[in-house]
Amino acid sequence: MNPFSYQNGTLMAEAVDLQHLAKTYGTPLYVYSRAALEERWQAFDQAFGAQPHLVCYAVKTNSNIAVLNVLAKIGAGFDIVSQGELERVLRAGGDPKKVVFSGVAKQPAEIKRALEVGIRCFNIESHAELERIQEVAQQLNKIAPISIRVNPDVDAKTHPYISTGLKDNKFGVDINTAPELYQLAAQHSHIQPIGIDCHIGSQLTEIKPFVDALERVLALKAQLTQQGIELHHLDLGGGLGIQYTDETPPAINEYIAALLAKLNDTQIEVIIEPGRAIAGNAGVLLTQVEFLKPTAHKNFAIIDAAMNDLIRPALYQSFMDIIAVTPRTDGSDAQWDLVGPVCETGDFLGKGRNLNLKAGDLLAVKSAGAYGFTMASNYNTRPRAAEIMVDGAEAHLIRRRETYDDLIGLESVITE
Ligand SMILES: Cc1ncc(COP(=O)(O)O)c(C=O)c1O
Ligand SMILES: N[C@@H](CCCC[NH3+])C(=O)O
């Protein structure tokens, strides 16, 4: 489903008028569709059929507790990378037994909390981290279930900043050295190896790298079985891409079908950690045109959303499609650079876009449900945007706009 479609000349989110939302809550404004979030998580879940599996939504993608709650209610597990994300999952009603904990430097306090609430598995990213988890588990007299994140060294063919499965990335351990680390882990008194983990990158638009990675993970599993280490699950990470413009990523069910074909009836539980493919196209960012500033060389449209609200274009030169909420019937298209009010030359959301604009127009940045709000900052002391979840004809404010007190209230002047 596409939750965002035009009706009577205006873009709607499900059955809610986006012009109306912008008037009520102001801009910049993130708007998510509940139905789209649910549909995409369920598409992953259902595609597994009889294969034992758990679809752990990657919390970093969009961590609003209303988003997590909607997914928890339909049975989602969660992939977290910090205690902060764990606290969100718990407050959203998520089941800790369905939580996997990734990330290269889990703090002792984070490990302790995760052991206390009883998460499913720690995805260990180095030998040093194995020792730290053993130490904390021993102090608590608990057994830590672990998998080792291996680096299968496959080229994910995505942006270098979001490719994670290559030898020279900071993530995971070299797949060739993993057997040694598993042997060592198995000898630790408070560690129980239960799975293998990998995650090769994000915004992948081809199936082959996923299948290549799985092949290497299966070979490792066979080797470990021979060495007497039996594992209960394979965690294949996230990474399935979405369409931002003209990309043609595989459909969710094609991607899962390719994994199942490679598994060839191996009855092992498969965990996946999709983020973008669930939340990306379930959200838009609404922004208003402040001023039009045509110059001799270029036309700038200055909008009220900036790189602090949505950093992907500035950080990765990502293309995010930008459309008029109510396309004009008067005037004509011109080419515009859509820039924000932040004092940085890199502050743009789109360049050279053909749009028919006037000051005051409302625009929607598409595919902004993933890595939008979660990567937002307060740079230039700009309050972060409000967030709305639409559910049919209803709109719920799921995060109010920040106030200046929210921003400045944590600070104090020195008194001398
Ligand atoms: C360990 C891990 N799992 C899952 C994800 C989610 O990735 P994506 O949003 O591409 O599905 C990420 C981010 O790339 C990650 O680092
Ligand atoms: N934040 C990135 C993806 C990185 C994924 C984090 N593991 C993006 O916006 O595309």
Automatic annotation (TrEMBL):
Record keyword NAD present: no
Domain Orn/DAP/Arg decarboxylase 2 C-terminal: 30-369
Gene behind this protein: lysA
Post-translational modification N6-(pyridoxal phosphate)lysine, affected residues: 60
Binding site for substrate: 276, 312, 316, 344, 371
Cofactor(s) in the UniProt record: pyridoxal 5'-phosphate
Protein name per UniProt: Diaminopimelate decarboxylase
Record-linked CDD domains: PLPDE_III_DapDC (cd06828)
